[in-house]
Design brief:
This protein is mainly beta. The protein has one helix at residues 3-9; strands spanning 22-28, 31-37, 43-49, 60-61, 67-68, 73-79, 88-94.
Protein backbone atom coordinates (compact mmCIF):
# COMPACT_ATOMS: atom_id res chain seq x y z
CA UNK A 1 0.00 0.00 0.00
CA UNK A 2 1.46 3.42 -0.87
CA UNK A 3 2.20 5.60 2.18
CA UNK A 4 -0.50 8.07 1.08
CA UNK A 5 -3.09 5.29 1.44
CA UNK A 6 -1.96 4.48 4.99
CA UNK A 7 -3.74 7.47 6.58
CA UNK A 8 -7.31 6.60 5.46
CA UNK A 9 -6.73 3.00 6.57
CA UNK A 10 -5.07 4.10 9.86
CA UNK A 11 -2.21 1.68 9.27
CA UNK A 12 1.47 2.19 10.13
CA UNK A 13 3.71 2.70 7.07
CA UNK A 14 6.74 1.53 9.09
CA UNK A 15 5.14 -1.81 10.04
CA UNK A 16 4.63 -4.43 7.31
CA UNK A 17 2.16 -6.29 9.54
CA UNK A 18 -0.07 -3.22 9.84
CA UNK A 19 -2.41 -3.40 6.85
CA UNK A 20 -6.00 -3.33 5.73
CA UNK A 21 -6.82 -6.72 4.26
CA UNK A 22 -9.46 -9.38 3.88
CA UNK A 23 -8.47 -11.72 6.71
CA UNK A 24 -10.90 -14.58 6.08
CA UNK A 25 -13.66 -15.64 3.71
CA UNK A 26 -16.20 -18.45 3.91
CA UNK A 27 -19.18 -19.41 1.76
CA UNK A 28 -21.78 -21.60 3.45
CA UNK A 29 -25.40 -22.22 2.52
CA UNK A 30 -25.48 -19.29 0.08
CA UNK A 31 -24.05 -16.80 2.57
CA UNK A 32 -20.65 -15.15 2.15
CA UNK A 33 -18.84 -14.33 5.40
CA UNK A 34 -16.13 -11.74 4.77
CA UNK A 35 -13.77 -10.75 7.61
CA UNK A 36 -11.20 -7.94 7.47
CA UNK A 37 -8.71 -6.13 9.67
CA UNK A 38 -10.09 -2.96 11.25
CA UNK A 39 -9.29 0.03 13.44
CA UNK A 40 -11.72 1.64 15.92
CA UNK A 41 -10.84 5.04 14.42
CA UNK A 42 -12.20 4.33 10.90
CA UNK A 43 -15.36 3.53 8.97
CA UNK A 44 -15.52 0.61 6.51
CA UNK A 45 -17.53 -0.32 3.44
CA UNK A 46 -17.64 -3.84 2.06
CA UNK A 47 -17.20 -3.80 -1.74
CA UNK A 48 -17.50 -6.39 -4.49
CA UNK A 49 -16.77 -6.85 -8.16
CA UNK A 50 -17.03 -9.63 -10.70
CA UNK A 51 -14.22 -8.75 -13.10
CA UNK A 52 -10.55 -8.35 -12.17
CA UNK A 53 -9.54 -7.69 -15.78
CA UNK A 54 -11.51 -4.46 -16.16
CA UNK A 55 -9.44 -1.25 -15.89
CA UNK A 56 -10.02 0.49 -13.63
CA UNK A 57 -11.62 -2.18 -11.45
CA UNK A 58 -15.37 -1.60 -11.07
CA UNK A 59 -15.86 -1.98 -7.33
CA UNK A 60 -19.45 -1.59 -6.19
CA UNK A 61 -20.90 -1.06 -2.74
CA UNK A 62 -22.74 -4.05 -1.30
CA UNK A 63 -25.50 -1.70 -0.14
CA UNK A 64 -24.79 -2.41 3.52
CA UNK A 65 -23.45 1.10 4.17
CA UNK A 66 -20.52 2.36 6.19
CA UNK A 67 -19.77 0.76 9.54
CA UNK A 68 -17.68 2.12 12.41
CA UNK A 69 -14.58 0.02 13.03
CA UNK A 70 -14.61 -2.31 16.02
CA UNK A 71 -11.05 -3.68 15.56
CA UNK A 72 -8.97 -5.67 15.38
CA UNK A 73 -11.27 -7.47 12.90
CA UNK A 74 -14.80 -7.06 11.60
CA UNK A 75 -17.03 -9.27 9.50
CA UNK A 76 -20.24 -9.17 7.50
CA UNK A 77 -22.41 -11.94 6.17
CA UNK A 78 -23.85 -11.26 2.71
CA UNK A 79 -26.24 -13.46 0.76
CA UNK A 80 -24.90 -14.68 -2.57
CA UNK A 81 -26.45 -12.77 -5.47
CA UNK A 82 -29.02 -14.57 -7.56
CA UNK A 83 -27.02 -13.89 -10.75
CA UNK A 84 -24.64 -16.72 -9.85
CA UNK A 85 -21.54 -14.63 -10.67
CA UNK A 86 -18.37 -15.15 -8.69
CA UNK A 87 -17.69 -12.09 -6.55
CA UNK A 88 -14.33 -10.70 -5.50
CA UNK A 89 -14.51 -8.93 -2.15
CA UNK A 90 -12.76 -5.78 -1.01
CA UNK A 91 -13.02 -3.29 1.79
CA UNK A 92 -12.60 0.49 1.80
CA UNK A 93 -11.60 2.47 4.88
CA UNK A 94 -12.51 6.11 5.41
CA UNK A 95 -11.77 8.76 8.00
CA UNK A 96 -14.76 9.95 10.06
CA UNK A 97 -15.68 13.61 9.49
CA UNK A 98 -13.93 15.94 11.88
CA UNK A 99 -10.76 13.87 12.20
Amino acid sequence: MPDAAEYPADTDPTDDASRLEIAAYRLADGTNRVEWTAQNSRFYELLRQTNLVEEPPAWSDTGLGRMRGVGPTMFLEVESPADGDVHIWGVRASVPLGE
